[in-house]
Every structure is written in C-alpha cells, then in structure tokens.
Hints:
Layout: E1 24-30, E2 41-45, E3 58-63, E4 66-70, E5 72-75, E6 80-84, E7 95-101, E8 115-119, E9 123-128, E10 131-137, E11 156-160, E12 182-183, E13 189-191, E14 194-196, E15 206-218, E16 223-233, E17 241-257, E18 260-272, E19 279-281, E20 290-293, E21 303-307, E22 320-321, E23 323-329, E24 335-342, E25 351-355, H1 360-363, E26 368-371, E27 379-381, E28 386-397, H2 402-413, E29 417-421
Antiparallel strand pairs: 1-7, 1-29, 2-6, 3-4, 3-7, 5-6, 8-9, 9-10, 10-11, 12-20, 13-14, 13-19, 15-16, 16-17, 17-18, 18-28, 19-27, 20-26, 21-23, 22-25, 23-24, 24-28, 25-26
Amino acid sequence: MRIFRIICIVVCLQPGMSHLRSQSLSFVLKTADRALLPLPVQLLVHDFPSNGDSVQVQVFRETERGLTPIRSQLETGINTYLWFIPDEVIAPHSEVIFHIKLDKVSPAQTVTVKNNVRMDQHNISLGHGGKKVLDYHHAYMEAPQSVDPLYGKSGFIHPLRSPEGNVLTRIQPDDHYHHYGIWNPWTKTIVDGQEVDFWNLAKGEGTVRFAGMISKTAGEVFSGFSIRQEHVNFKARGADQVAINECWYVKNFPVEIEGRVCWLVDFISTMNNPLDSAIELSAYRYGGGIGWRATAAWNKDNSSILTSEGKTRTDADGSHARWCKVEGLFPSGINSGIVFCSHPGNRAHPEPMRVWPEDANDGRGDVFFEFCPIRYQKWTIYPGEDYGMKYRMLVFDGEITREIAESVWLAYAKPVAIEWIK
C-alpha cells in the first residue's frame, strides 16, 4: 500500500526551541536548477505558539534594505504548519534568507488579511478581497422539478469562480443530472459482495452526503475548511450503510503569477473503511479522484485541453499526466481555466484521466475532466486504514503557458530545499 503524506515541505524545529518565543529563527531557502514562483511554502514545525497565544508569528525576507514582511500563517491541528509565500520570483541557484519572528510586530509590519471563510445554512464559502472563490454545498440540494428525486445531493463544490468572476463549474445539467461541479464519488464499487454505484444517483444504489464540519480558518496566506462526508450504501440489508467515511480538506491560496491574480486551490480527500470487510473500487473509466463538469459556456469550438505529456482533447482520454490544463472563452471574451495538478504520492501517478471527446453530448463538445486513479486497476480499501488523494488547482484568467503550468506542478510536487541557520 502506498503511504499518503499530506506534506509539501517537512522541516522540524529542533527540540527545546520553545524559548525562542521572544526571539527569531532563520533559515535559507535554496533553489536548484529552477526558479521558484511566488507560491505557498509549507513547513512542519514544533514548539510554536498556537493561534490562540498572544505571540504573533511573522516571516520576513532578508534584503539589502532590511527585513521585508511577507504573507505568513500558522495552521494548527494534530501538527502545526507554518505557511508563507515569497513576495517575488526566486531565481535558479539562489539562496534567500528568511527570518521567523515569534514576538509581536507593529501594525505597520503586518500584512492585511483579505482571505475569508463563512458558513451559512446552505454553503461553506471561501473568498478573497471581496471576491467569491468557491462554495461547498453542505445542504441537500433537491433535484430539478419533474426529474427523479434521487438526483438530489449534498457534498460538492459549486460554483468555482475565476478571479474575474467567471463560473467554471456546472451542476445538474440536463444531459447528466448527477453531475455536481467538483465532486468525487466512486462508480463500480463492491461492498459486502454487492456492486454499489455511488456516482449514478438514479440507480438508487448509493450516494455521497455531507456529514459534518471539522474546522475552518482564514489568515494572510489562505482560507480553508475541512469537512466529513459519507458514502452511503442503499443496498445494505436493513438500514442504509455508511460504507466509506471521507474527509475533504480544501484551501484557497491567492497568488500572483506574472502580474495576474490566480487562485491556487488545494483539494485533499482521505478515505477510511469502517466495515469489517474490504471494499473494492473496481477499475472503470469514471470514479473517485477529482471530477469536474465544466461550465455550459464551453464547447468543442471555444475550449482546449493540454496535458503535461503534450496530449490534447483528441488524445488525452485514457492517457496519464502529472497535470492537465483545461481552458476556454466566455461570452465576455475572457479566457479562463484550471490547471489540475496530481501529487506524486497519489495512487497511479502520473494519473490516468477521463476526458470527454470533442463530439461529447450529441456533438456539442461539452467539457468534462477527471483524474481517475482506478481507470485501469482496481483499488482495495481495507478496514480501518486511511487512503488519500491530493490535488492542486491553478484557477486563472488570461493565458497560462505550458512552462508556467510545469513550474506550478514542480513547486507542488518537488519542494525547494530549506536549511536552518544555527
């Protein structure tokens, strides 16, 4: 079994560092043969004060003119992580010194927090600077009128908006009422010897539903939330059966790439089998991973697909990729899209994909994309064990070159080196 690690960069403070609460700690960030874009960097730390302490944690970049404050944020939980975003591109073969100050800094030195997260009776919403980024529907959404009520559902992301406000997701389209924005149910699943379909809702075999809030947070670097979901088996004897417990961890990092604001959305799913017997996620062209039904504004004539391996919409389906860029024009004339990045720790990485062909849906060429880790090989989920999938989405307006897409994936998959200064 592949062990899944939810870590970008792991740097542990040495034991006994708690006395540094009123001092500073320094480290060197070293780039090798590639530049580092101003993208989030994560450090696993020990002996740091929690968010509830009066001590404020701030990261500074050392320059010839002194110390420049940069966006930084603590994330606490089972482990404590320090996030920061370099305020400029760091060239290849560079060594940049950063300082972590653990005492309070003056208001003039702090960075304004523009990220926000809120929860109402229907959604958990992430935003930045007055702009809406995405909604996660925790409330049950009814099926459209005159449609089988089995198509109703909770537990999905819609809308996901570009920084310019273009809605990139679509739910309950009349050709596939069971499509819900960004979501990830399993299709061919063997539970207690029976085949259960959690994807095709009208079969009445199963569904995925919201099961509870875990946490939500907002700071200088990101806003995010974590929730619980249940994969419910309607075919179980007696009462409905929770076959898979799942947690989603969703974060949005506003970043600036080549002078343009982009959203960097991290999506992590962890699964656990609460049953006494193993569950088989059978090999199939749909299921799990991360699925996306794209906006109705796109068709075969105004959208395009490019993978890390150079595949396009004509030959991407069924191929493997580290990343896949999907983009298209909106009526406003703005080009928007998403670069989907697969983490190297994921099963079957580089991952196989389901990409609808250009003649999908009676020749309209509607857009559907999915990283599908079980496309060619079944996945057995054993009782009591945790399994995970990890993805990053670069949400953009304008143009993102292949080189930028590759740089974003590299920063995600192969973090730069950090050394502490003693």
